[in-house]
Amino acid sequence: MAASNNDDNAESVQYFEGVEKLLEVWFTSSDGKDKQRDLRQIPRQKWESLLKIVRCEIISFCRNDQVDAYVLSESSMFVSKRRLILKTCGTTTPLQCLEPLLNLVERFSGFDEVEDVFYSRKNYKKPELQMPPHQAFEEEVALLDTFFPDGEAYCLGSADTDCWYLYTLNREKLSKEDREPDQTLEILMSHLDPDVMSIFTREVCSSAAEATEKSGIDKLIPSMVIDDFLFEPCGYSMNGVSKSGSYMTIHITPEPEFSYVSFESNIPEAAYDEVVHRVLKTFKPGKFVITIFANKESVAADCPKELEQSDYSNFDGDWLRKDVQYCRFKNYDLTCAFYSKFPS
After folding, report:
1. 72-81: per-residue pLDDT in tens?
2. Structural domains of the chain ordered from first start
């Protein structure tokens, strides 16, 4: 997460793209025997080889009965029974690993079909520094379409300023089992408070644990067991997992010129107001985007509608909602809302 990554491009040494590419894939079996299969059967060395294609590596790991959580050199990976989440920042290339990923999953776990795909990201500040196919969303969609002919692409927000891209299958589920409740809250923040960002530098904190406690990250969702990492000379990543299988992940690029923080969690909540309040109070962003995904089986099923109706102008600051869009897919509802500090 530090500004000096391993890219050969000299420009990228001075700039680090905090915006992540988020790939989530749900797998199933054509024979309907999902209960006998598990993505966590894939050996760690196979994941390590796959991540080389993505241009990142594993730097820390924790697990419980429900999920394996990896802190990466560029963000995070979560592996549970049927779901893979790969979230990478910088100049990583997650879509380049799709073909070997599908082969790896079938070989070691027996899942031979993709039930659902979500690929999303915010617009980059410097897209020209990205590696193919990640310089333009159109290129990413073209590659995804070669694997998923029934995929659909969306751009929410303003394509000229701030926007959030999404690619998903939007089709009826394939699994013969009942669909499990699923929900995801994501808060993508920029123009952050310099005093808060200074916590995530080696000048202010000597360890990840110190940064986690000093910032208050440990209090955002108290039930989480935290695995954190503080980069040299700056930058921070953490994964949190709970006994129920819920996760939380935060990634911080603290440099003032391009500060960026992402928060993501799948905790099941009937309303996310309190969580969002705590996150905004912790990081004090000048701008942020909130996305809420929830399927119909989730207790959060009505949260997207609530976000559409709320302006969040009372979130311990003068943030104004600039745009909000609500999407209803076959299996999920989504709301994406953009906020800026008043009067910008």
Report:
1. 999 999 999 9
2. 18-172 (3.60.90.10), 180-344 (3.60.90.10)
